[in-house]
């Protein structure tokens, strides 16, 4: 596998695109660019990037739509929103639609590079050494960190990078009640004020995908958090 990450920069401001492309190339990344929703989706299919730096406001739509389309099409790509829209509602929306991080303009280039590297570490197998035993199991669920494949009862489960990271954290802590703040810190790796809603949303996504192939697996401990348990009822 190549150790050069492929990054797609999507922004309709040429000066920002040129600056980011120059900085990212200096740091050793392979870079492609786009300025519209249509160009972004075409470039994602053509180049199969490892990560997308994605503006929200684009001439023919918004970055949220790009994110939704990439996730719906099963692209295993990290997504970092980079936008002037800085309300909590926008941040929650970006993470809820499947973004892995949300950076507001104006931004510090060194911080953006650090966040890009953090997302790549969480989402790309090619940027970490293969462990000697990379299979995590609980009940009839298997997660293979080498191939990024998840199965339940032998059937594949298609997960976004964030859903994969969430399931991995639960599998590393089976039957342990994990608070929303613990999950937020482990999966998103930074302190986000609207985190509770985002955690609940992604738990819901993961539940639906896992329970389509079997019984309840992620239990709600009301007032405390969530736990991976083979039980047929929530604990309140």
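^ Assign residues to that structure.
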């Amino acid at each position: 596998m190549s150790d050069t990450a492929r990054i797609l920069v999507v922004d309709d401001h040429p000066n920002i695109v040129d600056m980011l492309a120059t900085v990212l190339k200096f740091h050793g990344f392979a870079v492609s660019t786009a300025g519209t929703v249509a160009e972004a989706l075409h470039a994602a299919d053509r180049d199969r990037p490892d990560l997308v730096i994605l503006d929200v406001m684009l001439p023919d739509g918004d970055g949220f739509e790009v994110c939704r389309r990439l996730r719906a099409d099963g692209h295993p790509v990290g997504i970092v929103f980079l936008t002037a829209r800085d309300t909590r509602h926008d941040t929650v929306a970006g993470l809820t639609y499947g973004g892995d991080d949300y950076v507001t303009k104006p931004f510090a280039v060194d911080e953006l590079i650090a966040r890009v590297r953090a997302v790549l570490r969480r989402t790309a197998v090619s940027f970490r050494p293969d462990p000697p035993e990379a299979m995590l199991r609980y009940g009839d669920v298997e997660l293979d960190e080498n191939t990024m494949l998840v199965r339940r009862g032998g059937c594949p489960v298609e997960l976004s990078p964030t859903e994969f990271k969430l399931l991995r954290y639960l599998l590393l802590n089976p039957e342990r009640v994990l608070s929303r703040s613990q999950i937020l810190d482990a999966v998103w790796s930074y302190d986000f004020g609207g985190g509770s809603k985002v955690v609940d949303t992604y738990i819901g996504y993961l539940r639906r995908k896992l329970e389509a192939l079997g019984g309840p697996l992620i239990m709600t401990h009301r007032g405390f958090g969530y736990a991976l348990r083979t039980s047929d009822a929530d604990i309140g």
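The chain has two domains: 6-123, 135-228.
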